[in-house]
Design a protein that fits this description.
By secondary structure, the chain is an alpha+beta fold. It has two helices and eight strands. The protein has an eight-stranded mixed beta barrel with strand order 1-2-3-4-7-8-6-5. The protein starts with 15 loop residues before the first helix and ends with a strand.
């Protein structure tokens, strides 16, 4: 019986079928890695491109053209611009918090008031696009929300907390004028989990015309 020739490492060579299987598995892992890498680049790029279109549509809204769609097939419209002055960042928010809306920008959560009105206005966005900077906001930071009617609501960050998505305790009808910005937690997570980061703020000054 002929013995297999030992490999340079001193171990017997792998059977051909097993070797081919490992090669195929390695190739599939490489492809999967490239797909994930492509998604990681594409999602932020798409969000950045969308913000340019949303900014143009929102400017037209502020100019008095009414609700302007950012692109012809859009099923939502821009309703506010959220500004983080200390960070030098600003993002246009869309009406509604559906997955389709959040793919392009922050969403004004249904059933919550507009920023600056009595109650708690809530905006949500993805942690790897517009709201990736929420972790850099600290108590005392200013947040401005320019509304579609041209008025500006100003808030001051009071704190943040981590909650389960179904146990936030948020009451849109709570007394006062408050703002909550929400995103997935942890901020560097690769898969969606049950936790959310809430950055909470209170009105800093009466809403300006």
């Amino acid at each position: 019986m002929t013995r297999p020739v030992a490999a340079p490492s001193g171990r017997p060579p792998l059977p051909r079928a097993r070797g081919r299987g490992l090669a195929v598995a390695a190739a599939l892992l490489c492809v999967a890695g490239l797909v994930l890498l492509g998604q990681g680049v594409w999602i932020p790029a798409k969000a950045a491109l969308a913000q340019g279109l949303l900014e143009r549509a929102f400017a037209r809204t502020l100019a008095g053209e009414g609700a302007v769609r950012p692109w012809p097939w859009a099923d939502t419209v821009p309703v506010a611009r959220i500004v983080f002055p200390r960070l030098g960042e600003a993002y246009v928010a869309l009406a509604g918090s559906s997955g389709q809306a959040l793919a392009f920008g922050p969403g004004h959560v249904e059933g919550t008031p507009e920023a600056g009105e009595p109650g708690t206005a809530v905006y949500a966005a993805h942690r790897d696009t517009q709201f990736r900077s929420l972790g850099r906001l600290v108590p005392g930071d200013a947040i401005a929300v320019v509304r579609r009617d041209g008025r500006t609501a100003r808030f001051r960050v009071t704190g943040r907390r981590i909650v389960r998505w179904d146990a936030s305790g948020l009451d849109p009808h709570a007394p006062g004028r408050r703002l909550v910005l929400a995103t997935c937690w942890p901020l560097d997570g690769l898969v969606q989990g049950p936790d959310r980061l809430l950055v909470e703020a209170e009105e800093d000054a009466p809403t300006e015309p």
